[in-house]
Amino acid sequence: MKATIEKLCKIVWVWMLPLLLTGCASSTRITGTWKSPEATSTYNNIVVAALTENILARQKVETDMQNQLRQHGVNATRSMDIFPPARSSKNGPDVNLLLEKMRNDNYDAVLTVALVDEETQTRYVPGNVGYRPVTTFAWYGNFRRYYTYWYPIMYDPGYYTEDKVYFLETNLYNVKDDNLLWSAQSRSYSPSSMRKAAEKLAEITINQLATEGLIHAQANPQ
Asked: Superkingdom of this entry's organism (predicted)?
């Protein structure tokens, strides 16, 4: 399983990421990871690149990833600080210039984040049947009164609702040879807000990188 930064950026400069970040109680988790046998060391200088042309979404995702990486002692830089949005085309920063800049500045890896798919799931929310005890039987005199009292509160009908599920991919590439070091697939179920979705994604992703030995488990002591 091999891929390059250049191939990814040419094929998937994803415009869908803002949908995840503006989406309804949320659950975000990693569903699977892959690690290259060549990934045998820790990486201390990492550029974070959110693959979206939406400036606000890019800023939020890259900033949250940067903050989480710094908590693990990593020198992390946002791609938008290397190539500000005003200098980027609609297809994203020029990948060759980005690679050249990262190599010249001695970065050893780049972490990309992309929303690769989404789907809508329809589910049935069952109704409720209720019972309310009473202390008087005064209204039991006839069927009409009994029926019109109980029917509206005994049964709350069910209904169908739609949920959005977003599938994300986070990749770590070696800047020196452009090869894929690590990949994680994540799923976010009905995210409630841009802030929460981005923060949760950053937290679980960076913790997983630490768990798999690609960055330090915790920040270096001061």
From this structure: Bacteria
pTM: 0.71
User: Quick one: 130 exposed, middle or buried, by C-beta within 10 A (0-12, 13-18, 19+)?
Assistant: exposed
Q: What count of Cα atoms within 13 Å lies in the side-chain half-sphere of residue 145?
A: 6
Residue 93 near residue 110 (C-beta atoms within 8 A): no
The two tokens of residue 113 are 């984040």
pLDDT digits (tens, 9 = 90+) for 175-207: 999 999 999 999 887 766 667 888 999 999 999
Is residue 150 packed enough to be buried (19+ CB in 10 Å), middle (13-18) or exposed (0-12)?
middle
Q: What is the CATH number of the domain that holds 94?
A: 3.40.50.800
Residue 16, in any domain of the structure: yes
Query: What stretches in the chain show pLDDT beneath 70?
Result: 1-26, 86-93, 127-157, 191-194, 219-222
The tens digit of pLDDT for each residue in 65-86 reads: 999 999 999 999 999 999 887 6
For residue 170, which of 180, 157, 159 has the smallest C-alpha distance? Answer: 180
Q: The tokens of 100 are what?
A: 């050249």
Can you name the residues that pair with 180 across neighbouring β-strands?
A: 173
Domain region containing 147: 124-156
**d(Cα 184, Cα 209) in Å, to the nearest integer?**
9
